[in-house]
Every structure is written in C-alpha cells, then in structure tokens.
Amino acid sequence: MRIKISLSQIREELSKMMKCFYIFKDKSSRSGREGRSAPELRNTSKSNSSASSRPTRSTGSSSMPRSIPEMYREKEHNSIVFSLSELREATNNFNKLLRLGEGGFGSVYKGKIRPPDGKGDPIVVAIKKLNTYGLQGHKEWVAEVQFLGVLEHPNLVKLLGYCAVDGERGIQRLLVYEYMPKKSLEDHLFNRTVPAIPWRTRLHIILGAAQGMAYLHEGLEVQVNTRLNCSCMNLKVIYRDFKSSNVLLDNNFIPKLSDFGLAREGPIGDRSHVSTAPVGTYGYAAPEYVTEGHLSTRSDIYSFGVVLYEILTGRRALERNRPAVEQKLLEWVKQFPADSRKFSMIIDPRLQNQYSLNAARRIAKLADSCLNKNARDRPTITQVVEVLQQAIKDTEEESSSNTIGPEPSSSRSKPVATDKQFNKLRVNAAMRQMSHAAQA
Ligand SMILES: Nc1ncnc2c1ncn2[C@@H]1O[C@H](COP(=O)(O)OP(=O)(O)OP(=O)(O)O)[C@@H](O)[C@H]1O
Ligand SMILES: [Mg+2]
User: Fold this and answer.
1) Which parts of the sequence belong to the Protein kinase domain (predicted)?
2) Fewer CB within 10 Å: N-end or C-end of the chain?
3) DSSP secondary structure string, 285-349?
C-alpha cells in the first residue's frame, strides 16, 4: 500500500523516529476486527479521522463482545472536555519550567486545575500536548481517550479528560491525566541525578506493572449479547507500548501504566494474533511483530522481558554510547547466563549489592522465557505475576537472614489528588456541558 504523506507529516514522522519506528506495509491481510471505528469525541469540531467513517459493530444481536469504542460511548460522560484557555491557564501558557518530560508525540506539563466550586486547593494534573497533528497522532489520541475511558485498574493511569480544538491557528489535541509525582520508571533507572530505586521497590514496581498488564490481557469481562441469551467473555487488550518510560510512579512508587495510544483489542476466538503495521519503540518490540506484523498479548510479554532486564541491570534496552558489544542490552546479557557464576556482573551497580541473588536469577530466567523467539513459548502474564511474587518471597526470606538492607521508608505524603476530587471535577464537568448544551 502506498501512503501519501505531506511535508509537515514527514517532519513529524522524523521527530517521532527519534524514539519510535513506523513501518508501513500492506494491511490487506487484516482480520475483521481491524477496521473498527473510532467515534468522534465530543467537542471535536472537525475530525479527519478516516476511522470515524467506518461502520461499528451493532451491540444488540451480535455474538461478538462489544468493542472499546462502543463501551466508551456509554462512559463518555465521565471524561471532562477542557477548553484550551483552561489548560493554558493551568500551565502558565505551557511554561517550559512546568515541563515534566517529552515523548515522541509532544510535551507533558504539570498543571493546576481550579476546583469546580472555586473552593479548596487546585488539583494538580499532568497535561500532554501533542506537538503536531497527523493522522497517526489523531488516531493515537482517540485510542488513548477511548481505552482509558473504559479501562479501570489501580495500576493504570487515570485520564481525567481531553481538549480538542480545530481552529484557525491549527489543530490542537491535549490529554489531562492524574499527576504522577515520581514520574516514570525510566527516570529512576537511568537518570543518574535521581536516587537509585532499591531492590524491593523495583520488584514491587514490576509486580504492579505486571498486574496492570494482567488486567489488560485477562481481566476485562465484557458482555456478549446474542438473540437467545447474554453471556460474558474476556476482551483481551494488547498494550503494545510497554517500556520503562510508560510505567509512571505515584508518591508511594505504585506503578501505573500509561500511553494507550497504540493499544489494540486482541484476537477473538481461536486466532493467535491480529495483523497490523508495526508501530512501537525500538528495542522493546517482539521480533514476530516487527517482521510479520503479528500482534498478540505475547508481544507485550516480550516487551516485559526487556524491561525486566532493564530493572536488573539499570541499563537501557539500547545505549549507543557504550562499547559496541554492550549497546544492545539483550545481546550483552546473553554472555552472563542466569545460572552462571558471572551472572552477578550484570546487576545494576547502583544497587550496591543490596539485592537477593536468588530472586535476581529467578527474574533473569523469567526474562529469558518472556524473550523466547517463539511467541507461544512465552509465559502468560498470570505466570509472570506468579514468578514475580515468588521473587519477592525469595527477597524477604533472604533479608530476614542477611544481606539486604531495610527498605527506605518511601514518602507517604498525601496523594496529589484524591478520587473524590476527580469525581467532583467530573460531576461539575457534566453539569457544565449540560448547561452549554442548554444555551446552544
Ligand atoms: N501523568 C504524568 N505525571 C507525571 N509525569 C508524567 C506523566 N505522564 C508523563 N510524564 C512524564 O513525561 C515523560 C514523557 O512522557 P511521554 O508519554 O510523552 O513520552 P515517553 O513515554 O517518554 O515516550 P513515547 O512518546 O515514545 O511514549 C515521562 O517519561 C514522564 O517523566
Ligand atoms: Mg509515555
């Protein structure tokens, strides 16, 4: 398939390629679920999403589970539609000093939203502003709003709302999330100016991330209506973007998965995968996905294996500034098998030997199985969770007998914004939208 692409899109693609790769290929072999619609979101004055003109599956008589866009429509009222001026005010006009980070699609700012009734402290949020706008950017923005509008789990980040403006001065797409004070796992593992996270905290972070992924792969029950009866089945969600920068951390280092712009509904029935153009981040994507476009929950497991090695070693999946043999993390660790004597040489020196060797070996073996070339031989996420729980047990047993120092008490400060505050905001947003509608 030939893709028409404008100059500004090329510029956008180039900037994205700093972190992401986009390989386009013929999608004619797509399964039936691939072309489902992404409905327009409220207050999106114009949408050029080709997806929005595609038909959706009917909810009433199909024996298929409802799709995420269909489920989103029922929960849409929970998302707050922010105005651009509100978000400008919240971030002091997107002040650089408030910038928390930058990804392939734009910058993330810390912001303060005024409480709906004007009383009490402002609510601290994180606002992601998409840099430029292309079809890929819009699709991801819609997917993010829909998936996070439907999915709910303690280990997934909360999306409070969004802003979409198609004005004379261009098109703006923004997302408003709960603020995660400790930023991302990436910031702690690789940024030498941030204190290293201790062993036990690493284990609890990766366990929480696995539990978030278990919810995506196995925990989402959806209703299936047929003419005769109504039953439930699991809807698999493939996350497609598991990496350390997408594991955000709250004040107590509780991890929450973020960035659902690439998420996809998994295959239905006997199918092992969906076929799609590979989109993702170098170093984390499964080989069968990169070469064949075969996407399955086991592709997420592969990415999980990469992050497990990042946690063990404190090294990035890809580090260009190291000697050639050390640049690719997965190649490098192969020289230090989990059962060998030299295994401990790969462990992050910033841990200062404060870790359980048994647990580390167990995790390296788990990582190796996640990285299996054959997707079917990789463990399920439930099996991953079990092994991680066992590694935590190893650590506790070892620490009661010797080497591992006590866990530094994490700052148990007040959460930045409570669920109660978020709900209050949502109720107010719904009222505000109703009064706008009444005035119109
Ligand atoms: N809700 C949030 N609260 C606090 N900090 C955040 C939040 N979301 C993102 N950040 C910070 O902003 C950084 C950039 O995030 P972003 O998701 O835009 O890019 P990325 O994940 O690094 O890369 P990519 O665009 O390839 O996914 C994160 O690494 C994190 O430090
Ligand atoms: Mg991210």
Assistant:
1) 94-392
2) C
3) S-HHHHHH-EE-HHHHHHHHHHHHHHHHH---SB-TTS-GGGSBHHHHHTTS-TTSGGGGGGS-G
